[in-house]
Amino acid sequence: VCYTDGSKILTGTGAGIYYADFEINKPLGSLTTVLHAEVFAINTFVLNLLNLNVKRKNIAICSDSQAAIKL
């Protein structure tokens, strides 16, 4: 199971990923939207799985962004 999230505060936007094998927190600047942060988090997780050569494994990605999932 992987948990992803994007958020925005007055000082900027960021993305977070939590997975059993790694955790990533990435600041994305003040011009990034929350939707972009959510999509960035999901995409970054998938790219990390590919880099780790993860294959034939069922993985659930938990996101609170319906808009990011529908893209």
What's the short version?
The chain is α+β, with helices and mostly antiparallel strands and about 70 residues long.
Distance between the termini: 21 Å
Low-confidence segments, ≥5 residues, pLDDT <50? none
Share of residues in strands: 35-45%
Query: Cα-atom Rg, whole angstroms?
Result: 12 Å
| Fraction of helical residues | 25-40%
Can you give a write-up of this model?
The protein is of the alpha+beta class. 32% of the residues lie in helices and 37% in strands. The protein contains 2 helices and 4 strands. A 4-stranded mixed sheet has the order 3-2-1-4, covered by helices on one side. A hairpin with a 2-residue loop joins strand 2 and strand 3. The chain is globular, with a radius of gyration of 12 Å. The relative contact order is 0.26.
Helix/strand layout:
Blueprint lengths: L1 E8 L2 E8 L2 E8 L4 H18 L9 E2 L3 H5 L1
Parallel strand pairs: 1-4
Antiparallel strand pairs: 1-2, 2-3
Which tags fit this structure?
71 residues, alpha+beta, 4-stranded mixed sheet, 32% helix
